[in-house]
C-alpha cells in the first residue's frame, strides 16, 4: 500500500492510499486539544476542499475521513461564536454542501467523542463507523443552541424520530452500541481509526456500494403526538434556555420537508439563537469555566506534589462536606476532631448522606462502601503527618486557627499543602502562624461542600506559585471549579454578596416584601432569591458579620431590619422561621405574615413612605451593586479577570447560567448604561453604596469592555497615560 502522496493544511492532513483494488482519498483531522472545527483555522474549509479535490479525481473510488488525537471531534469551535451567524457558521455549512455534492462515497470514522458539528459532519458523510467506546451526541442545547449544521434534519432521517427528538432535546450522548442499534452508524470497530476507516472504505469499494446521502432518505413513520408532548415538557424551562424548544420546532419542520426548505428553517433558527443574549450567556459560562481555572502566568505548568491523601481538621458540617467530596474523588481521607462525640456524629452524617445517594439511585452500594472505606477518623493530630493536603475547617476565630496552624506546622510533612477553609479571616495572618507561609493557602468551600462546585483558592502574599498550582490540581481532582483570588474581606464571592444584600435590604425598607425580592430574582434567573439564601444559610451568621461591620465600617451603615428578625430568634430554616415560615412539608418556605407589619413599622420609623418596587428595579439595583463591587475587586487586583467573578457567581451563588455572570451582564448593558444608572442611583437614598468605581470611568474613556479585559487587554491608569 502506498501513501503520503500529498500533505495538506496545518490541522487537516490529506493523502492518497492506493492498493491493488483502488485508491482512497484520506482526510485526517488533527487539531488538538479537541479537534474543534475552527473556521478561523480554516479546518472545515480544508476538509471541504480535500473532498472536492478527491471527488474530481477519477482514480479515487472512496473518500475516508478520520481524526487523530484523544477523540474525533468536540464540534464547532465555541470560542468563535461572535454573534455573527452569517460568518460564524458559514465555513461548516460549506463542508456539509461539499459532502452532499460528492459523487464519490464518503466514509467517516469516529472515536472517543463525536459531538455537535463533528457528529453533523458524520451525518453528512455517506457511511459512518465508530470505535466501540465512542460517545455520540448533539449537545448544542446545553449551550442554548441547536444542532445548526443540518443535525435536526439529518438525524431523523437516519434514526427513528422519537430517538432523534430525545437525543437532540436532551443533548445527552448515546453509546456506540446504541448508535449501531438505532442505525446512526453502520459498524463498530476496535483500535486504530485510520486502519478501520481504510478497511471499511475498501469494503464499500469492493462491494460496489453507492453514494448514500442522509438528506435523500425518507423519515420513517412515527406518531406526530411526540412534538406536542415534548413541547409541553419543555415549556417549564424554555424561558431559561431557548435552545431545546427551537430545536423541537426544527424537528417538526423536518417532518414536513422537503429537506432544503426545512434545512433553511434550521439555519435561520440557529442563527437567531446565536444572537440570543441567554445563549451568549450560556456559551460564556462554558468557556469561562475553562478559563477561570487557569492561573495567569502559570498556564501549562503542573505541580510535582502528589495529591492523594487529605486530612481535614474539624468534623462539623463543612468538614464532613469536604470529606465527602474527597472520598468521592478516591482520596484517602482523614477526619480529625478533638472530641470523640463529634467524630461519631460525623461518621453517622457521612453514612446517612451516602445511604441517601444509594437510595436515590445516584450511587451503587459497592461504590458507597468503597468511598466509606477511604475514611479514617481520629482525635490524634499526629495522624495527619503523612497527608498530602491538610484542610483546617474549625470555628471561625483567629485564636482557634492560630492554635490549629501551629500544630499543623509541627506535624505536617514537608511540602504538604496547608489550607484554611476560612470565609472571612485574613489568610496572611493564618500563614504567619507557620514557618512555611509559602505552603499556606485559603481553600474556601461553599456549603454543602460535597455538592457546590465552587472553590475559591485564596493566594496570600507569600503563597508560592507551586502551592497555587497544587491547589488548582486538588480542586480539579475533587471535581471543583477552583478560582484563584486575592486576600480581602469576604474574598470575591462574599464581598460582592454583601453589596447585593445591602440593596435587597434597602428595597425591603422602601416598599418591597421578601416575596417581591426573591420572586423577581428567581424569575430573572437566580436559583434562589437573596433573602431565601439568608434563611437557608442561617440569619445568625449574617447578624454576626453585621455586628463586626458596625465597628469596622461605621461609615457604611446597614439596614437594621434583618437585625430585628434575628432579635426574635428567627434565624431561618433552622429555627423554622425567618423572612419566611418553614412548616413541615412546605418546600421553599411560606409567607411569614408577621414580616410585612414589621416592615411597615420599620419604614415609618425611617420616615419612608412605602412604594411599589418593581421586579425590574429589584434585578437592576442588585445587579448594578454586584457589577460595581466586581469592578472594584478588579481594580484592586483581587480577581485576575472579570470572567473569574462570573464563574464564582455561576458556581457558588446560583447566578443563572443563561445570564452568564454579573460582569457578562455589565457588557450586555453596556458600560455607558452601567455608569449612567450608577450615577443616578448614587444620588438617591444611601447612594454612597452605589458610587461608581473609578475603573469604570477609565474603561469608558479607553473604550474597553469586560470582555476586552478577559481577552487580556489592560486598563491604563493615569500614571501610565
Ligand atoms: C456546534 O457544534 C454547533 C453546530 O451544531 C453548528 C455549526 C454551524 N469549541 O472540556 P475540556 C476546549 S456547538 C472550542 O476541558 P474534556 C475547552 O475550552 C459545539 N473549544 O476537556 C478546553 O480549552 P482549554 C457543540 C472547545 O476532555 C479544551 O477544549 N459541542 C470545545 O473534559 C478541553 O476541554 C459541544 O458542546 C469546542 N466545541 O471534555 C461540546 N470543546 O484547553 C463541548 C472543548 O483552553 N465540549 N473546548 O482549557 C465538551 O463537552 C467537552 O469539552 C469534551 C471534552 C467532552 C469534548
UniProtKB/TrEMBL annotation:
Pfam families named among the record's database cross-references: 3HCDH, 3HCDH_N, ECH_1
Catalytic activity: a (3S)-3-hydroxyacyl-CoA + NAD(+) = a 3-oxoacyl-CoA + NADH + H(+)
Annotated 3-hydroxyacyl-CoA dehydrogenase NAD binding domain residues: 309-486
Xref: Gene3D superfamilies: 1.10.1040.50, 2-enoyl-CoA Hydratase, Chain A, domain 1, NAD(P)-binding Rossmann-like Domain
Keywords, in A-Z order: Fatty acid metabolism, Isomerase, Lipid degradation, Lipid metabolism, Lyase, Multifunctional enzyme, NAD, Oxidoreductase, Peroxisome
SUPFAM superfamilies: 6-phosphogluconate dehydrogenase C-terminal domain-like, ClpP/crotonase, NAD(P)-binding Rossmann-fold domains
Domain 3-hydroxyacyl-CoA dehydrogenase C-terminal as annotated: residue spans: 490-582, 618-703
GO biological process: fatty acid beta-oxidation
Major place of residence: other
Subcellular location: Peroxisome
A GO molecular-function annotation: isomerase activity
Domain of life: Bacteria
Known pathway: Lipid metabolism; fatty acid beta-oxidation
Coiled-coil residue windows: none
UniProt entry tagged with the keyword Isomerase: yes
Name assigned to this protein: Fatty acid oxidation complex subunit alpha
The species this protein was found in: Thalassovita mediterranea
